[in-house]
Amino acid sequence: xxxxxxxxxxxxxxxxxTIGTLDRLKLPLWLRAAIFSLSYFLCALIGSxxxxxxxxxxxxxxxxxxxxxxxxxxxxxxxxxLCLAVLPANFAFDLIHDVNPNPTVITLxxxxxxxxxxVGAWLVRRFVAETVTLATLxxxxxxxxxxxxxxxxxxxxxxxKTLVTFGLSDTFFKxxxxxxxxxxxxxxxxxxxxxAWLARPNWSVWLSRxxxxxxxxxxxxxxxxxxxxxxxxVVAEGINGRIVPLLIFVLWAGLRFGxxxxxxxxxxxxxxxxxxxxxxxxxxxxxxxxxxxxxxTLQVFMAVAAAVALVPAVVMDERNRSFQRLRESEEKFSxxxxxxxxxxxxxxxxxxxxxxxxxxYEKILGFNRAELIGRSPVxxxxxxxxxxxxxxxxxxxxxxxxSNWELQIRNRAGELLTFMHSAEVMALxxxxxxxxxxxxxxxxxxxxxxxRESEEKFSxxxxxxPDAMAISDLVTGQFMEVNDGFPRIYxxxxxxxxxxxxxxxxxxxxxxxxxxxxxxxxxxxxxxxxESMGRKRNGELFPNxxxxxxxxxxxxxxxxxxxxxxxxxxxxxxxxxxxxKSLRATIENTPNVAVQWFNRQAxxxxxxxxxxxxxxWTAAEAMGKTLDEMIFTPEQAxxxxxxxxxxxxxxxxxxxxxxxxRRRDEKMGVLRCTVFQxxxxxxxxxxxxxxxxxxxxKNAEQAREQAVTREQQSRIEYTLRLLAAxxxxxxxxATELHDSLGQNLLLIKNRAQMALKPAGQSAEVRAQLEVINxxxxxxxxxxxxxxxxxxxxxxxxxxxxxxxxxxxxxxxxASEIKxxxxxxxxxxxxxxxxxxxxxxxxxxxxxxILKHSQAKNVEVSLERDIHEVQLRITDDGCGFxxxxxxxxxxxxxxxxxxxxxxxxxxxxxxxxxxGRGTRVMVTVPIPAEPE
Length: 931
Fold this sequence. Notes:
Radius of gyration: 55 Å
Shape: flat
Distance between the termini: 88 Å
Helix content: 55-70%
Oligomer: single chain
Structural class: alpha+beta
């Protein structure tokens, strides 16, 4: 059976002991058994093909290794089905290879193959390992002994006894030896291969980790092994020649590629050598060929090869696992060391210097690792009590360990922390060191201190409380301790009260109040704010609030009680009611402020007359309603409820804030609202909402804003019309200069030239005519330049791109500034006034640069894309402060640029400051339709 067949069977079993990728392929049991039966039959055919000759027995019986591997890999509950699956494969093979098949002989052969293998597998699972992975030498040799030596002996005895009994063999020992060695050969070379690849998890991961160098090495190894074997068995002496060098390759495979690589090399070499030997029979005598004794040489050699390859591989795997376990143990210690919430450190025993610390040092003490390593706690000033440290260090050296001793440590910030220390001496690289664990108990000590302080505070609060506080026996009611509030409220001295009960002293108005107190204490274990009437020593009755709770003091059930005199509170409440009555009258008659009171559920409990006027709801209609039922939308009502919750939580008032609201007649308005917390007459927390109607004010403001907007829009439109009129006037003047004045000047020039032609004029007249000619020529040129500046006619003939380039070229020639430009094609994008505005924007920018920038370099770019055109003009001049220029109302050229950009529907930006040049950016959208 080839390895893929074994892999397929193993994948079909879905065995729990492995976690390989192929093991996740789940197949029904009958299909797994069928695959195993087919694999068994194929292995038998391969073994027969590799045998010396065709006979009753096979000298290289691969099914022995397959069957043993199947039993070792499968759960024991499936053994019966595997044995049953072997039966048809065994019968089919014998029927094919036997001329006169005997059912009895075939059955005995089946028993010889199955029973010993089952026994061997059971012995391995019983005495070696339940899960066989060939992880140790004991497991390796145990599997080879039980499955490779012992069980084949039993099987060979049964098989050869059958051969001799039925006259199929003459010699028992020779036949037994061939049978036994054939099975041993198969188990030795095939069983380790199957176990190594199928019993161990993640073989696919093992393959995927191969580097390119490792793959090349494996190719060289197997290629060299196959070529060397072919040369020896086909070209050279054959099986009886020098085949020992082949052991180098299998040893190489075992050492470099572990058990999987070594077992694959041994199995591959076995198949290759057996096939070459039986097919070529190089260097063998006729006697050796007829007796097939050469197979013994092959079998012995492959057994040695298996030992050479697999024993070092198992040893190395076992060593690697030991190293891995050691690394994992060290890693676990390292992780526990680093992540421990307590301080953990390793220090030198003699010097006390830190060798290693965990992360808690930085978190708790504020020191990082670099600051601590190589220094001692004393050098760092961490230890507060040096004498105690030296004492504990001497104890540690004497006993080797010490635990649970307190020591204060000062952190980096100078704060004192209390730690519970434990330490143990350990050897690290032959050096005595100390492993110390320190647990921060600062909070525990603080909690204990807080408890003591709490008790002290309770004692002080008990003594100094203005309320009457007492501790009394729960059964007898006799006072055990009273504070100063009792004598002050009731008029009794402390000595008169201690040892006597409240009933004996007549502190209750009647027995019913005392009975109610006892009943509630018995049912609830505590009483909170029970209103009752008490009696003072002089017989005066007074209202009070009684609170009490049962406590245990030294195993004795006691009652701690608090009595608060409500006389002053009742008087204050009466005064408050009178004050509220006056306040309500004031609020009710406030004409312009709508006032409402709300309870905690945001329902109206008060609604003044101004609220009725403002919202259109009467007080009777509004009482008990929420605002979403009257003036708010549900969302506004939810926001209002949230505001009330926040006010109750924080105590801070809300507002003033403006909100839209809806009147009862569905008209909308705007109000300014302020909300704050009060105590409403019912006694629970309530809220006051004060609203001022801003609707008329907002309407007036909106009207003013609209008027301002209309005025601004009018100014913009006026500016745009002014620029358009200015451009038209420039064009008219330019035309007049060119057509009228230019023509007249040209006529003057021509007449002067004609007057110079006749001879006979005096020198003085001739000189005057020449001056007139020169002046006319200069005037014509100046008129043409003025006409060009007023209206660039080249736009109509050359287009925008060429006109801009000509403008830049003329400007560069007329100045010492270095100009560079890049102008994209802009034809058929803008027309008419749009092209003129673009031209004027660049012209105005260049004029500003020439007049004010003091620049040496200017870059101009005009780029277009699908949607817009962008003009960028950058100089390295002196720059300027835009804010200052705006305040001084300068920069008309810049304002003209902005207005023209606005006419084009674009936007302009400027980046400048004194001393760092100027950058003007103009972005204009490309119109969808030509202008």
